[in-house]
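Hi R.,

As promised on Friday, here is the backbone we talked about, encoded as structure tokens. Could you run it through your design pipeline when you get a chance and send me back a sequence?
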């Protein structure tokens, strides 16, 4: 969607203040005196559109060029860019191979389905309305899962619980799905002011939410990597002192995740000092004494999660002016 910004003067007409409409926009919309415009009022802007105007559906043609993997990657790209329909051209003999590869990532692309199959093409369509799941709900669900994954992955080490580790790994796919959908939705809002207005999002929201889904997805990846090491039996028979320190670090990480949530959604900025103190405690707990290779791998993942928690808190932190 082509957009541009203009500076227009406010004029007085009778007892009202008025702003003229851009001539080329009026002509493109075929508007005339007496026509009705719909005006949406937000904290930052007024959005005008013709009353019959609905969201324009985006479609793209993709073509097989000798590599099924590249074609699947292009579909992922089209999904993230907000396309509602993708017409994928390929030889009949390739369709079976494509469907097998596509099935590996289809569950991560929420709402996208194959709706038509022809001899030389497939039609993929987004069946989920962008207003059905708000970005805030996506982030809150990612937050909940990542909290569970932090606690469960470290508990799996402490208790050598392989089944618990496997559940963490399985949950990672749900986080990936939410991440892809969140990116798609936020990009669509950046491109479509009407959608952004309907979801009541500011430009700052779009920036902060985009970073937050990235950080939450990465936090969950770190927890999943820890769980994967447990599943493979790589973290058995750890040093007793290290296990005690790991238990304390687990509690600190979970407490931080809860406090950062309150900072992010409830603007409880006074909690930021607690987050910083716990970061230091985690570092002190985990670096007491010399670490073995296995212990160092665990520390690297924990340290990475803790830093990303702080990054999440910083997104909402507002300095207090003197």
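Update: got your reply. Pasting your designed sequence below so it's all in one thread:
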């Amino acid at each position: 969607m082509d957009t541009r910004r203009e500076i227009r003067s406010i004029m007085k007409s009778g007892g009202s203040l008025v702003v003229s409409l851009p001539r080329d926009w009026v002509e493109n919309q075929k508007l005339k005196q007496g026509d009705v415009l719909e005006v949406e009022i937000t904290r930052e802007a007024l959005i005008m559109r013709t009353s019959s105007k609905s969201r324009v559906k985006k479609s793209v043609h993709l073509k097989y060029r000798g590599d099924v993997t590249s074609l699947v990657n292009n579909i992922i790209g089209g999904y993230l860019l907000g396309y509602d329909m993708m017409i994928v051209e390929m030889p009949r003999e390739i369709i079976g191979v494509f469907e097998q590869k596509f099935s590996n990532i289809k569950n991560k692309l929420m709402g996208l389905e194959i709706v038509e199959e022809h001899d030389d093409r497939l039609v993929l369509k987004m069946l989920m309305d962008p207003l059905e799941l708000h970005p805030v709900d996506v982030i809150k669900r990612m937050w909940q899962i990542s909290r569970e994954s932090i606690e469960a992955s470290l508990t799996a080490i402490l208790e050598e619980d392989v089944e618990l580790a496997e559940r963490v790994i399985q949950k990672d796919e749900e986080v990936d799905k939410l991440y892809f959908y969140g990116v798609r939705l936020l990009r669509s809002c950046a491109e479509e002011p009407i959608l952004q207005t309907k979801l009541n999002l500011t430009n700052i929201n779009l920036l902060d939410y985009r970073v937050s889904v990235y950080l939450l997805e990465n936090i969950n990846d770190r927890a999943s990597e820890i769980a994967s090491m447990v599943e493979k039996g790589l973290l058995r028979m750890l040093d007793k002192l290290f296990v005690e320190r790991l238990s304390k670090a687990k509690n600190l990480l979970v407490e931080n995740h809860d406090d950062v949530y309150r900072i992010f959604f409830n603007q409880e900025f006074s909690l930021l000092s607690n987050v910083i103190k716990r970061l230091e405690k985690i570092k002190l707990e985990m670096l007491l004494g010399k670490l073995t290779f296995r212990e160092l791998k665990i520390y690297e993942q924990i340290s990475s999660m803790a830093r990303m928690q702080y990054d999440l808190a910083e997104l909402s932190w507002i300095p207090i002016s003197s």
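One thing I noticed while checking it: The chain has a mean pLDDT of 90.

Thanks again,
M.
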